[in-house]
Prior knowledge:
mainly alpha
Amino acid sequence: MSSSVDANVFKVRHHSAITIDAPILISFLMPVFLPICLFINFRRKLSQKWFALENLIEATLYEIIADLIEIIEDIFWQISVAQPKPQTLYSELTKH
């Protein structure tokens, strides 16, 4: 088995029971949230804009990192569930 993992193979199951490819989710979130964040900052003074933009980018990056960690945890959980269970002596003796 290869040590590299193709992210497109694994699906991420979210609480809404919708299955989403992790790369599609990430590529969708970036172009949606960044223009909204920039639009909100156009109404402020220049110094306030820069400080707010900096805080907004930092908060957005933290949210993206938290989402990526959740996606990676889901992938590892799915990998661990997909692993075959080891055979025990009892299961071998009771197998028909």
